[in-house]
Write a structure and sequence with these properties.
The protein is α/β, with parallel strands linked by helices. Helix content is about 35%, strand content about 20%. It contains 6 helices and 7 strands. A hairpin with a 5-residue loop joins strand 6 and strand 7. The chain is globular.
Length: about 230
């Protein structure tokens, strides 16, 4: 009886171990898995990332600094693709002031693409995911699966041509992870903007999954003509 109990417990845990996902609500174009498999070393596009808009003010879980942290992570992740020259919009004033102090005639680079995003979902994992298991051991397994919580984060993403204001792409991306979800490496760099409190938990995994999905979508939807700068 005890061995069967242990076996069923193990099976329940194994079944939930890989409960991570990242998704794009609307997508199209080439498969990004093959694109990520090869190191990119071609011309780059100039891109800037705006602070994430707060659409979660009514949620007790969300704080505005989380959006700033995720915006920074997206910029880092886009830089990691080696496809983009990422321009620091917030730091341009400081750069301009330093340039004037040095009496430099060097022109500051302009972005061709602006990425904006609005946070539409942010749940660190307060809702349990109880299983539907019957039989003599249904209560035991239901209690086990109920202990696993799922974190979730979602954004509405837009890619905009700076010169024309034209929206190149608009979609929704999300990331989900259970308490036993695996990580996604160092995508996006460190957790900034107050997000460090979610480190090594399901919410970190969900955020990094969402960032990866957002990067995939931006790369997929960036027209080839924007890749025209050598460095």
């Amino acid at each position: 009886m005890n061995s069967l109990h242990a076996l069923l417990t193990s099976l329940a845990i194994i079944g939930l171990t890989a409960c991570t996902s990242a998704g794009v609500a609307s997508s199209g174009g080439a498969d990004m898995d093959s694109a990520r498999a090869d190191a990119y070393d071609g011309p780059k596009a100039r891109i800037a990332i705006a602070d994430f808009e707060d659409k979660m003010s009514s949620s007790g879980y969300y704080r505005g600094e989380y959006g700033r942290g995720m915006s920074d992570m997206l910029g880092t992740a886009l830089f990691q693709t080696n496809r983009y020259i990422v321009l620091e919009r917030e730091k341009l004033k400081a750069v301009e002031a330093e340039r004037k102090r040095r009496n430099s005639a060097t022109k500051i680079e302009d972005a061709d693409i602006l990425v904006t995003a609005a946070v539409t979902g942010f749940d660190p994992g307060t809702a349990g995911a109880k299983g539907n298991v019957g039989g003599a051991f249904g209560g035991m397994l239901g209690g086990i699966t109920g202990a696993f919580q799922q974190a979730h984060v979602a954004i509405d993403l837009r890619v905009i041509d700076v010169d024309t204001g034209r929206v190149i792409a608009a979609t929704s991306v999300e990331g989900k992870a259970s308490g036993f979800g695996g990580g996604v490496g160092g995508i996006g760099g460190k957790l900034g903007g107050g997000l460090s409190g979610f480190a090594k938990g399901p919410m970190e995994t969900a955020i990094r999954k969402m960032i990866q999905a957002a990067v995939d979508e931006v790369v997929r939807k960036t027209p080839k003509t924007y890749y025209r700068y050598q460095r």
